[in-house]
Amino acid sequence: MIKKATYHHISAIRAVFRACIRQMKSQGILQWNDNYPTQENIEKDIEQGALYYIGEGKNIWGVFTINEVQETQYQDITWYCDEGKILVVHRLAVHPAHQGKGLAQRLMTFAEEYGRKHGYAAIRLDSYEDNLRSQDFYRKMGYRPTGYVQFDYQPMRCRAFEKVLHH
């Protein structure tokens, strides 16, 4: 059910991001916009084999990227795990029409299983400060807040989270 995205998935992935952006804007959450996530983000993630989707046939319900790329802002955070390989979750999005069905949980469970299988010590991610629903979700999944990061493309900070994986 969860598979690596390919170039022929790009328009469907962009549609998921656009729908999520519209929904967040309607809730006053300015997490993403026309400048992010970009077509280049999507293409690069696919090229590196790091973008995964959950869906059926040509229908994509949710997406995320998992890789080892830590934003430079992550250097200022005091993390719980200070050694070993780190897996990072980027741009998790579930189409509003498919939210509330446990898809984000399935994606994150996939990331954790992937992380354990490939010897990662921890998973890190960040969530927009005003997106409380997202932060509650990560806390329920066992992720602990570690601090804040600020990105140029967003007006507000993001809360950083980490989950240490036990082998």
Task: Explain what you see.
The chain has a seven-stranded mixed sheet with strand order 1-2-3-4-5-7-6. The chain is built from four helices and seven strands. It is α+β, with helices and mostly antiparallel strands and 167 residues long. The protein has a single domain (2-164), classed as 3-Layer(aba) Sandwich (Aminopeptidase). It starts with a strand and ends with a strand. The longest helix is centred in the N-terminal third of the chain and has 17 residues, at 10-26. The radius of gyration is 15 Å and the shape is globular.
Primary descriptors:
30% strand; 4 helices; Aminopeptidase; alpha+beta
How is the topology of this model organized?
Layout: E1 2-4, H1 10-26, H2 39-47, E2 51-56, E3 59-67, E4 85-94, H3 103-117, E5 120-128, H4 132-140, E6 144-149, E7 158-164
Parallel strand pairs: 4-5
Antiparallel strand pairs: 1-2, 2-3, 3-4, 5-7, 6-7
Q: Bin the helical content.
A: 25-40%
Q: Indicate the structural class.
A: alpha+beta
Q: How can the largest sheet be summarized?
A: 7 strands, mixed
Give me the side-by-side strand order of the main sheet.
Answer: 1-2-3-4-5-7-6
Low-confidence segments, ≥5 residues, pLDDT <50? Answer: none
CATH homologous superfamily name?
Gcn5-related N-acetyltransferase (GNAT)
Roughly what is the average pLDDT, rounded to an integer? 92
End-to-end Cα distance, whole Å, is: 25 Å
Number of helices: 4
Number of strands: 7
The CATH class: Alpha Beta
What would CATH call the architecture? Answer: 3-Layer(aba) Sandwich
CATH topology: Aminopeptidase
Q: Report the C-alpha radius of gyration, rounded.
A: 15 Å
H/E element order:
EHHEEEHEHEE
Structural shape: globular
Proportion of beta-strand residues: 25-35%
